[in-house]
Amino acid sequence: MKGVKDMRYLLVTLIAIGVFTSCTSTTGENTSVDTIKVGFSQCCDDGWRDIMNQEVKRESSLHPELSLTLRTSANNSELQIQHIEEFIEEKVDVLLVSPNESAPLTPVIEKAYNAGIQVVLIDRKIESNLYTAYIGADNFEIGRTAGTYLSGKFPEGGKIMTIELPETISPGVERARGFVEGISENPGFIIDQFVRDHTVINMPDSFRRLVSESQDIDIVFSHTDYLAEVAHSIARETDLADSIFFIGIDGIPGTGRGIEAVEDGILNASVLYPTGGDEAVRLIVAIVQGLPYQKENTLETIVIEPGNAVILSNQMKRVSKLQEMIDEEVERLDRLRVNYQSQRLLISILLIALLIGLVLAVSLIRSLWSKQRAYTSLREKNQEILENQKQLHKLAEQLDEADEIAFNEDKPFDVTFFITRIREMLQERKNDVQNAVKSNEIVSDQLSEVLKREDLPPEDLDFLRRIADYVETHYEDSTFKATDLCQELGVSRSHLYRKVKELLNEGVTSYVESVRLRKAQFLLRQTDKSIADIAYAVGYSTPEYFAKVFKSRFHTSPTGFRENKH
Q: Transmembrane stretches, by residue range (predicted)?
């Protein structure tokens, strides 16, 4: 019974290990590295931010420990606040955010920072210093660079039309201030027209009329390349495009974008406004790894003109080609990772099957060994029965002979001789029975006294008898322990110890030891087995420990006990 239970528990353990192994093999390629959850809140959709998003995704793919989630709010501050609240609720480790508007987004970003989330601002700032780090170009410096460039390009000055972003976002305010300071070096400049971006995008007819009426505009300075390109398209309709110098901000690569627009002559110049997506991810990695980092990180800028636009365009094309190759390698690595996980799962299943097979084999061997022991025991008992039968047959023959002698010799039957012989044989049988009882004695003196109590409840009597029966059949097993008895009786360890102590006034271990030592006493008295064989026979793992326990209990060694024939 115990072997079957052991096998059952071992099988359950192996299955649990297998399930755990298969689960962990599909949750990631490297479970030793904690996953860093990064929530990226992007303020809007445009070509420049597409480049930023691509850089963030590409750089994140090079860091398997990062888990990136991107949410874009489409120029909607309320939606972006909702996205950040969701990231806080999801308990992201890092919040990467490009605020749509400074003032409305400040409270929720401060909330994320105060919640223990590492907050990294990219491109735009908030009206607070409660953030971990900022990375992006200096919008004031960007505007000033454009103004300084024009001062050198037009030493005599000229009339300027500015197309500006809203004052509610930090780039709009900072670029305007920087541009004014840049052109202040040349007193010949005059800002003749001031246009907001929504006029160019949402009211093209109004902007077209404004351009037509501004026949003497020399320069169009736009806060983005896109707005400058729209202005150039409308000016071309009125044949004014060739007489106006168009300069924007962004200088991003790609078809129809800043660098290519300068290369194709649509724009005369563009001030590079780097996205900083890849730098932002590297900054996040440094923060979460506890490496040194700066809170304020400013990206450098240059002015893109027709002279360097071709060079930059070719470089960007090569970078784009390399990016495609990197993306292909990342995809290939992902496929290899999936194959690795599948092979790992298969190997785990095979190992579990092998272990189960091993357990079954061990169980089969133990079962065969137990059956062999049972067969040997039955054979010995059968031999004993046959010997008893022979003695009975012999007795019967002696009786027949005595009766025949008495009859033939016509002598009276010798009753005294017959009774004496019968008493001798009965005494021999009694001695055998007494020896058998002693050898199978399963209870201590204390248990015997308890079982004689008339006031003992039936359930307690049954409890003690079950204990005695189980100990009698398992005391020879050196691995037998109290927990096996708990499983057999269906009780907890504390309940078993408390109940045995209450009924027998001794512990479970003491009771089992008493049974083993009484068995050992019997074998020492009735057999010539060695001390070592007796120790193993009564469930002790070593003869030395058996001798130690025996002497502690009876104040004499097993050898001394045998010699004195207690």
A: 345-369
